[in-house]
Write a structure and sequence with these properties.
mainly alpha; single chain; 10 helices; 244 residues; two-stranded antiparallel ribbon; 71% helix
Length: 244
C-alpha cells in the first residue's frame, strides 16, 4: 500500500517535507552553479571560496546533482521528499567523517577544508531532522500517517469517510436506531432509555398478537383462514350470522 495514501497533499507533514527539501536543494544548487561559474579545475585539492566554503569542479557538480535530486523529490511528493532528505543527511554525515581524514592529502578530491567538514555535519543534522520528523519517535499520535502505515491501519481519511457513512446510515434509519445504539453502548439518556423500552414493549405486543392470530387460524378450515385474511369478508360473515 502506497504511503501517499496515508500522507495526502494537504497534510502539514507533506508540506513540511516538500518545502524543506526544496529550500535545501535550492541552496546546494546555487552553491554548485556558482562553483562551476568560476571554472575551477575539476579535481583540484585546493579549492576556491564559494559562499564561505571551499569548492572545486567536482564538488560543484556533486552539489548541483544533489540539489537537483532534492528539488525533484520535493516536486514528487512528501513521502519521497522525506525519505530522500533522510538518506542524503546520512550521506552528508559519512562525507564529513571521511573527508576529515582526507584533508591535506592527495586524496582530497573534493577540496574539503575544516569549514566543509563542519558544514557536512551541520547539514546532516538538518537533513536527518527534516527526513525523520514525524516518522521516528516514541510519542507519535495514533493518527500519525506513519504510525497507521506501520500498523497496517487504514488512512485517516478512509476512517473519516467510513464514520461519516455510518453516521448517514444511522440518520437514515431514524432516531430509534440512534437510541438503541446509545443504550447498547451505555451512554443513553433517560429519554432514550424510555423510548427504547416503549419500542421493545410495542414489538413484544405485536409478536404476541401475531402468535395469537396464527394460533387461532390454525384451528379454522381453509375457507375460514382465507376469509380471515380479508376483513370485509369477516364483516359480511358476521352480518349473515346476526341476520340468521
Amino acid at each position: 500500500m502506497r504511503m501517499d495514501r496515508y500522507l495526502p497533499p494537504e497534510h502539514p507533514l507533506n508540506r513540511f517535507y516538500r518545502v524543506a527539501a526544496a529550500i535545501f536543494g535550492a541552496c546546494l544548487l546555487a552553491f554548485g552553479v556558482l562553483g562551476l561559474a568560476d571554472r575551477v579545475p575539476l579535481f583540484s585539492t585546493s579549492g576556491i571560496d564559494v559562499m564561505g566554503l571551499s569548492s572545486n569542479g567536482l564538488l560543484a557538480v556533486v552539489s548541483v546533482a544533489v540539489g537537483a535530486i532534492l528539488i525533484g523529490a520535493a516536486a514528487w511528493g512528501g513521502p519521497v521528499a522525506s525519505t530522500t532528505t533522510a538518506v542524503i543527511g546520512v550521506l552528508f554525515f559519512l562525507s564529513g567523517l571521511i573527508n576529515i581524514g582526507l584533508m591535506n592529502t592527495a586524496w582530497n578530491i573534493l577540496a574539503f577544508d575544516i569549514r566543509n567538514v563542519a558544514f557536512s555535519f551541520a547539514a546532516s543534522i538538518v537533513l536527518m531532522f527534516i527526513g525523520f520528523y514525524g516518522r521516528l519517535s516514541g510519542g507519535l499520535p495514533e493518527d500519525n500517517p506513519y504510525v497507521r502505515y506501520r500498523h497496517h491501519e487504514p488512512p485517516v481519511q478512509e476512517d473519516t469517510d467510513r464514520v461519516r457513512a455510518e453516521e448517514r446510515r444511522i440518520e437514515e434509519l431514524g432516531p430509534m436506531c440512534t437510541d438503541e445504539i446509545a443504550v447498547a453502548e451505555g451512554h443513553a439518556s433517560p429519554q432514550q432509555q424510555r423510548r427504547v423500552s416503549a419500542e421493545r414493549w410495542r414489538r413484544m405486543q405485536e409478536e404476541r398478537r401475531r402468535a395469537y392470530e396464527a394460533y387461532e387460524s390454525a384451528g379454522k378450515t381453509p375457507q375460514q383462514r382465507i376469509s380471515s385474511q380479508n376483513p370485509w369478508a369477516d364483516f359480511e360473515q358476521e352480518k349473515k350470522q346476526i341476520g340468521s
